[in-house]
């Protein structure tokens, strides 16, 4: 029980730090960007959330068996894909909760910053209407993207996990251990 609380507090602390750094960085960058570039950044950040959501669902839906066959043939990334399936709860927590919530919060903050840019350029824009439309746009793109991605994550989990395994393998080869970000709770 104590180790679970420690993991939760660690995750909350990492989320706080990542959110702070990303929000400060993105707000600093937005000051120098056009509205079009700011909207592109917002869409890119939402896309990151969608991709991590797909990975979290794929890890939960994935099966180990195909990766054991690949690992026996020394396919790069297969062992990392097995690790993703075995640690599906931690992968899902990291991808869907930590990254998903940070991206959701960050996209809202970027939306506000974009609204401020728009209001500076078009002062006759009604504030309530602009706020409503920005929130609706962010929600629609986020939910729509995740809805499209979930079916793919479930039906193509082996492909998604192998690609992710290859990415993790590449980072392992250059000395960056990304797997340590995910809690080491084994799937039962």
Key phrases:
elongated, 188 residues, 81% helix, mainly alpha, disordered C terminus
Structural features, described:
The structure is a single chain. This protein is mainly α and 188 residues long. The protein has one domain (2-181). The protein is 81% helix and 0% strand. The protein is built from seven helices and no strands.
Topology:
Blueprint: H1 2-30, H2 35-61, H3 65-72, H4 78-86, H5 88-121, H6 127-155, H7 157-173
Helix pairs in contact: 1-5, 2-5, 2-6, 2-7, 3-4, 4-7, 5-6
Describe the structure concisely:
The chain is mainly α and 188 residues long. It has seven helices and no strands.
Overall pLDDT metric: 86
Q: Looking at the chains present, what oligomeric state does this protein adopt?
A: single chain
How many strands, what sense, and barrel or not for the largest sheet? none
Cα-to-Cα separation, first versus last residue:
17 Å
Radius of gyration: 19 Å
* Tertiary shape: elongated
Number of helices: 7
SSE order: HHHHHHH
